[in-house]
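Technical note accompanying the year-one report. For the benefit of new consortium partners, we illustrate the data format agreed upon in the data management plan: each record pairs a sequence with a structure-token string. No post-processing was applied to the example shown here.
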Amino acid sequence: MKRMQKTTRSNFITYGIVIVGTILFQALDSAGMLSSLLSGLLVPLCYFMILAVSLNLVVGILGELSLGHAGFMCVGAFASAFFSKIMDGAMPDGLRFFLALLIGAALAGVFGILIGIPVLRLRGDYLAIVTLAFGEIIRNVVNVFYIGRDANGFHFSMKDAMSLNMDGGEIIVNGPQGINGTPRDSTFLISAILLLITLIIVLNLINSRSGRAIMSIRDDRIAAESIGINITKFKLMAFAISSALAGVAGVLYAHNLSTLAASSSNFGYNMSISILVFVVLGGIGSIRGSMIAAFILTLLPELLRSLSDYRMLIYAIVLIIMMLVNWSTSGRYMKEKIADWFRGLRKSGTKGVS
């Protein structure tokens, strides 16, 4: 009972951080106290935190190294952007974005299952390499699609835009140039709500019976299988949920831009590594830590943009310090001492009230 109460309290602290941060930044933005740079970063902060939390479900809770997270983000982004583009003006904006969100998450989850069935038979470096390959395949396949629409319906080609043979109309997906004119429906409030929903899903899954089964697979696969845990089922569950949440982040990404293209900079290997960096520096298995790391490491380069000559140097130093604090013996000892100090303050405050 005490452990359950401690877990519940920790979860509510995490939710509280998101709620307080949302209220604070929303108030500052409404009052015009944020610069245009910081105001433009509010939505990216949220979807990067969603990506970090969702990847931690696979890396930290399941214990498998996946490097294809940007691929699932790409699926969610393009599926939702395509739907929003063709339905723009045909239904209310709120309903269209809600359906786009469901489509992006569902399709990314389906791809997670389809990829997970063969891939999750592998482990360690082999799994990382194959998921990386799938992420690159998804991005490159999207770049060869040409889809247009005219009075005769939809036209599809994998050659070039001229081969669509359209009678007027418009090109919706234009190969490497992607999708232009996506409705910009992503707002900070919606993004923060989706981040909160992501945390509720992941934290409740971790503390459920299924979550304990997933963690038992991480700790000892053979022992988990020997007591009747279905290894394939629970690994696929974690992988599919993680992929679907990455799709949600992709929907926010796609609807925060007017032009969406599947380039190597936004859906490639570097994006997957960046998300993994959030997870590692925040603490593998620490949902709150990965969220905070994503917030800091997304915000820091932009805040240091004025120091153009030293920006990346300072960023690298912060990365090293975070790694030392999270993984060194002295760093862990320091965090434990700080936690003990806060617990002592809370207990003394409780005694004072009584």
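Partners are asked to follow this layout when depositing records. The radius of gyration is 22 Å.
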